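Ticket #530: bound-state structure for NA7.
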Amino acid sequence: MDHEDFDVIVVGAGFAGMYLLHRFRQMGMTARAFETGSDVGGTWYWNRYPGARVDVESMQYSYQFDEELQQEWEWSERYSPQPEILRYAQHVADRFDLRRDIQFNTRVVAAHFDDQAVNWKITTDDGKQTRSRFFVLAVGCLSSFNKPDIPGLDDFSGNSYFTGQWPHRPVDFSGQDVAVIGTGSTAMQSSVEIAKQAKSLTVFQRTPNFSIPAHNRPQDPEYVAYFKANYPELRAKAKTVYGGLLDDFDERLAVETPREEVEAVLEARWKKGGLTFLGGFADMLYDHRANIIAADFVRDKIRSIVEDPETAELLCPTNIIGGKRLCVDSGYYKMFNLPHVQLVDIAGTPIERITPEGILRGGEVLKFDSIVYATGFDAITGSYLRIDIRGRNGRALKDHWEGGPRTYIGMAVAGFPNMFTVTGPGSPSVLTNMLPSIEMSVEWMTEAIDTMRRKQKRVIEATPQAEADWVAHVNEVAQGSLRSTVKSWYNGGNIGDKPSVFMPYIGGLPAYVRKCDEVVENDYRGFELL
Ligand code: NA7
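RESOLUTION: The complex was predicted; output attached.
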């Protein structure tokens, strides 16, 4: 048998990778994480663009595995800005001395299962190979930035910025003519900040998006004190809610509620702000009639905020609200009332190419000093498929996933023994509060490994049948939702050649946890332990 350098190799040192390292150390196992960045933080390490901010309330967007940690950390705002989340990640790394198990500035380029040695051979971009019994992908789901294939992108003589790979230095747009391409969450957050500096800002919109105000504000000390005093109960309660997030979700149906009452609920939720805007009624994402009421409500808000009627109409999305992930903004629509901000609708007349001076569209070059590409991610599967991963008999993951990603309970892949995925396809992570979702998966898989050790097993592997059943279940649950009818990064619709498959598990966190618990209660049903 080939020597194993570590019990486990983890790819990524974001929130998932860090907690994995902590757990494996507690279990007395040796683990090494490889991380492309120069420090911890993952998504929050890379996405340093101006205005980057979480849109889950900070008191709930944090680890709960350590009571002292959650008591000692102070969040300064209702929705934390990126620098503060990064500082939190760094604090966790310091507190648990995690960096000694992380090799930074190192990208994993290949991971091959060795059938004879029954272990994984990991190749990194420093040319080295490392072997481990277990291999865990904690690569994140919004971590492969989508560089758009607009012709001439490299010809631009001004400054080009990619929001997902923002420079590690201050960027000053003062006095500049700036273009932002994209109108997703990232574009909405960054544009508002860029507009505060730039001489002019031009937003290039291909598809308008629905956004709900964040109403961000400094933390209320009383709210923080209440949360900290009741953390165990509040966290436990959050796990019983669909999104793993404490909020008032109502089981009522909008279609069975008088229209004025529905409007009143939407108004209250608009005033409160945030991602759970649609949570007042259970049918918002399942019944077109309900969805249209909410969509009309937001469209009317846009028209009431944006002074120029033509711009307001262009900003009004025509599709399902919540089909694409809702955006949460801090003054995006209002920004278009500023005299130096303009919207260019590229739906009908797309960008032809980038030229040395700017953006060519409709036969005219619009000149810019800087272009900001806020063009999204090759979400959920992108970071897996950048690595040459091969399971039993040299089978490539990219071939196994040719028709769309396949996992068992979002954590394992048939034919890829001892390999685990966190926040992967088939898990509910991207539809739920990410931190509790990560903790749940990490705890599940580390307990599975612990069980194997106790049973003196060497291999855990999902069966093809269990994987097929899970994929069918994930698809079936998705079919019922209006979300599956809209092209989005949830279903690969934002990337030209991706298979069209709804990738996350849409059944919610509590249902998912129940399914994962049942697997354990039934002696790891759907897995072979050898
Ligand atoms: P999104 O939500 O995928 O948005 C990307 C935006 O970029 C979207 O408006 C796209 O338009 C636009 N886009 C992408 N490629 C092009 C090209 N080639 N030309 C013009 N416009 C383009 O990514 P975000 O980073 O904003 O947010 C991702 C998630 O991160 C978010 O949902 C939160 O969960 C956090 P399109 O809609 O495809 O017409």
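RESOLUTION NOTES: The longest strand covers residues 129-137.
TICKET STATUS: resolved
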